[in-house]
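Ticket closed. Logging final result for HD domain-containing protein.
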Amino acid sequence: MSSPFPSLPVSQITIPSNPLINAAYAYVKENCSECTLNHCLRSVAFGLILQKKFPPLANAPDRDTEAVVLSTLLHDMGWATTKALLSKDKRFEVDGANIAREFVTREDGKWDKHRIQLMWDAVALHTTPSIAQHKEPEVFATQLGIMTDFLGPNLPLPGSPITIDEYKEIVRAFPRLGFKEELRGIMCGLCRDKPETTFDNFVGDFGKIYGLDGKGGGKEEFTKMCEEKNLVRMLEASLTALEQYEN
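Final structure:
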């Protein structure tokens, strides 16, 4: 079976190739932008380097590398350009987790409930490091590989496991193609199209900084909406309302 992935001799890793991984690669390629696809591939590569060099992952027993690769490859299906795949009321991470679960269930009926749940958690929690790092190694590896695409050699881990040469090799293999600008557009689009999914997480910060079009349009209105939906204010108002029943 020929692999769709290039060799990475500097990093000394090989992105695994099998029918399910290759099908997942083709699925992301078909339904996401090339920029998003390359982000997912870079994240896979960084995750594999970290699995080899970062002790908490390297020393994890019975690591499920296939689950890590598939979770990372499919993690941003919530950004799909095929809008029919997406919900109108769920966070993009949940959309991605649901799509990944449906894909693997459809393509490979041999995955048991535990592996499927592991992948769902890895995708759903990939933007929540304060939770992901305390779950299974596969969930942590997925989250850390994705974070590395944003921090590269500046990843704040002991021993600086991602070298500059490794970083350069991965980015040459899977170019960024304007990723920073596309990311801003996607996040602002979520604030515009699914605002209720953005108030309690970092996505809303994009809307408050860049507006709903990435250029400042709708910024004030969205910021006001976020303030009205502020979780602390809502919790305290709810507790105050309950005081009438406690006297």
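The two ends are 72 Å apart (CA to CA). No further action required.
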